[in-house]
Amino acid sequence: MLAMGLTSCNNDNFLDTTLYNAIPKDFMYSSDANATTGLNGIYDQVFPNDDYDGDWGFKPNLFTGSHPTIDTQATGWDKDWNTQKWGASSEELLKGWRHVYAGIVRANDYLAGLEASTGLSEGVKKSLHGQGCALRGFFYHWLATTFGRVPMLKTGETYMNTPTKARAATYSEMWNFIIDDFKTAVDELDWAPMNGQYGRCTKGMALTYLADAYMWKAYRLTDGANGQEQNENEAKKCLQEAEKCLKQVLDSKVYELSRSFTTNWDPAGAWNKETIWCEQLDEGTNWGGWNDMTSKLMLKWYTACPENGGWGSLYLSWEWWSSYEKGDKRREASGYTGAVPQIDPNNPAYDPQYEGWYEPAVYGKNPYLQEVLGQSKGADTKTAQFHFTNGEWAPSIWSAKLWRTATADYLSWSDGHWSPTPIYWKRLPNVMLDYAECRFRLYGGDDTEGWKMINELRNRAFGKLEDGHEKELTDKFLPYYNDYAHWVRNAREAAKVPIHDLTEYPIPFGSTVATVPDAKTVYTALKAKKGFDSPVWKVAVNEERRKEFNCEWCLRPDMQRSGYMADHVAHNYPERGEASDMANSPWTVRQYKYDDRKMDMPIPADELTKNTECDQNEAYRADEK
């Protein structure tokens, strides 16, 4: 769909074309083709847009959807998102707010015209209406899970005709609006995307978000009420509806787990059968320059190691790294560690207390790009210690999901800007773990269906679906990395950094354990070891989320909605001061008291100034005085 925007002006006479704002509004609805094209204006806001938020998909999503869990970390001003020091003046919050409300306003305007139109074929009009409602629901879902109660602009309402509006009076009022949008989308959309175009909203996407919305409403009627009315019976009804939606997705067989967790972030894995809703950035093997971009989201610079050309916006914690069991391949698929001597059993400095932390495929290197971590510093690198430093301490682990497909060093700025990357909003594992949670809440912590879902996901995590398919997977997913190596080779060799053709996929396929440990047994033991207050089922669901969804923006919202955030922070990140030798200590410093109310982010100060009917969330009202 974005290709239309990139090629529509490829004409010598484009300057003589009639301006869009001079075309009568009803022209958009004069034909099926025009109405379909008009919907692209809403889809445009699913992607970064410099007019509102050129970093959408990374910032503010990382800051609000991941950093509060502390599993992802930062330095500089960004570190405030790890310590609950964010505030109403945050630029990232304001940009995200403006970005999604721009999408909502476009949807409201489009839907008003669509509903009044009379010249469209019934099937096309129905699909376009369903997509418009699903997109508006998606934008509101981000606002509601990020800020709590927000102003709900309805069909036909825009900032022009509704410049001020109060927030929804209750959480239920807000979630009912979102639920209605997704219910409409479920009724009007098919399982397959319109015209076979991946990236369009589908019935599966709408059902998944509808279930999520029901679960959020249930949370706000119980643990997350924040002083509003609680209603256990209504919450149970919401969970029952969520269970039905999720079961419908599972029973449809439209979606299935990829054989390899790892390959979900490879270009050849774009829009695979596991994907339900995704912001797919720059798919393909064209790296091009500034003029060829579909998105200028600078992921590889944000996420690469600073000694490999990165900007230092993202690090992963050792607490997260150490949470995995031996043989769980999601860890090496998600991160690269510095070559820390204490975790390497082959190093004389090895310390047995870190047994199991060593992953040879990603130890001290990014194997996809054939880059040694800290290669620009040589022996002076600060990556070969538990906490990296270039002025501030941060854990020496970098994301393998987001820094994988393009270098931040060679041929990177002027003519190698792209890094094809999926930003997953919903994958099949979201459905599986949400379904497990609904089952446990409705039928008790011993529910066999719930534990079945978790064990099925763990079976893939330990590589069992890869077994016997190693060659097939290699043939499909390896070629991109050799194509990229050929493209960057001259620049690498000029810098005296050799690169060669790979004969095997960077992380070996296949399981390394005979039997996958039973989830209930594992998490019963973990609860006892760490002293979690939550029941075993809740520990299991949410610890699996931590392992599955690191650097995916559903993590904090899902853990909050589950009522697990406080337990997680208290026991996975106990309060501790800075170690005397941070270079040789893996553990995170936490010197603040966790406040669950602050998981509802502050309404941006700019919105409060312009929208006099809007008020601030309670946890931040003292900041305004």
From TrEMBL:
Keywords in alphabetical order: Cell outer membrane, Membrane, Signal
Record-linked InterPro entries: SusD-like_N (IPR033985), SusD_RagB_dom (IPR012944), TPR-like_helical_dom_sf (IPR011990)
Compositionally biased region (Basic and acidic residues): 607-625
Any one of the GO CC terms: cell outer membrane
Localization (cell): Cell outer membrane
Residue numbers spanned by region Disordered: 603-625
Domain SusD-like N-terminal: start-end pairs: 59-214
Stretches assigned to the RagB/SusD domain: 273-620
Record carries keyword Membrane: yes
Family statement: Belongs to the SusD family.
Protein name: RagB/SusD family nutrient uptake outer membrane protein
Organism: Segatella bryantii
